[in-house]
Amino acid sequence: MKFPKEINAYCPFCKKHEVHKVKAASKGRASSLAAGNRRHERRLAGHGSKRKGEKTVKKQGKRNKLVLQCNVCKKKQERVVGSRTTKKIEFKS
Ligand SMILES: [Zn+2]
User: Fold this and answer.
1) Is the pTM of this model over 0.90?
2) Which of 1, 36, 45, 47 has the greatest number of CB atoms lying within 10 Å of its CB?
């Protein structure tokens, strides 16, 4: 999916529409010892059958998240692209 490098979007800090730089949001590395991860592992432990928290259906695409940076105040905000996309997001030059 293609997306423009710069868009005119609402900035909640300037309280009006400004030109924003667009970048793909990156996810940090998941830590395997986080409380939520340990809980999830505990729930999956056991023998067979459908266990709570186990996925049965794999989704076809990912929902891409973008980071918009305001050109005036340089503050950042996140935006989720409307639909699931199977391909990685690209930026038009
Ligand atoms: Zn701004």
Assistant:
1) no
2) 1
